[in-house]
Each structure stands twice: as C-alpha cells, then as structure tokens.
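Q: Convert this sequence to structure tokens.
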Amino acid sequence: MERSSYAGLGKFASQWLGNNYSKVEYMGYSVTGTMAHNIAGIPLVGADICGFQGNTNAELCARWYTVGAFYPFSRNHNAIGNDPQLPWDFTGIYLNTVTYMDIFTQAMYTKLHLIRYYYTQLSLVQQEGGAFYRPLFFDYPNDDNAYLNQELNIMLGPALKLGIQSKSLSTSTEFYYPAGRYC
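A:
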C-alpha cells in the first residue's frame, strides 16, 4: 500500500489517496481520485472512509461506507485525537426506521458480494490494460450525456453502473443511465 506513486506502480502495488477530511466534499474528491488513479494505471486504489482528519457523524460515515463499498480498496482510518468512527461507535442511532449499524452492515455485505466480480475485472485490467473504476464516457464515448457529471456516474468494469451522491448530504441527484444492460 503506497501513499505516493511512480510510473508503473499499478503493476506491483496498490495506493490509498492519502489523509483526507471528514467532510462530504472529500467523499466526492475520493470518487474522482479513485477514478483518476484507475485511468493512470493504478486500479487498486481507494480512500480512508469516514475521513481521516476531523470528526465525522453517523450520517456521513454511513454514506461513506456505502460509497466505499464500491471502491477497489477502502478502509476506515482515523487520526489520533479524533472521535471514534468505527461502525459500532454509532450503535443505537437511527435513520428513520433503520439503524446506522444496519447501513454499515449492508455496505460491507455489498462489498463482500462483489469480491468475485472485482477480482475478475481487476485481473482482466492487469492482463489487457484499461481501467476498472472509470467514467461513464469510457464505455459510451458517442453519448454526449455520458460526459456530464463524471464524478457521479461511474462504471465498474463493463457491467456495473454506479451512481454516487457525493455532494451535499441534503440534496438529491439525478443519475444518467445510457441504453445498455446493467447489474
């Protein structure tokens, strides 16, 4: 696991995006950072979910776990002196009718259920080149709408389309799905 990189690193190692902040904007930056590293040939990359610097809250951490379930690599990592941010630190806190622990658990199940797909796709990238976590326009270069909101519309391999709400926690987002087959 590297924090800095060099040409060809992606063939031999993975990378994490470095220390980030426990803010919704940094969740969005991690999406574009993961995508950029994949385009540059480092497919196994991801972020410190929930943020590293500063204190998070249950809602942001749960959203980041949900987004992090789709990173090729993710971890919950926190600076010394910050409030604890592991899933069980939010036990008993509800979002409407579900607990945040339920959201964390579902995110981890999602990640684990995708492991075979990730392994296969990352193996193909290693053998054939390309990017795993990539912008929508890589797969739909002739679709003008695929170039809009690139940080919100991501392809994970050829069959999994991901729409991420990585802006403000209180806003809604419209995602674009071009004609095609998706999981």
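Residues 9-131 form a domain with the TIM Barrel fold (CATH 3.20.20.80).
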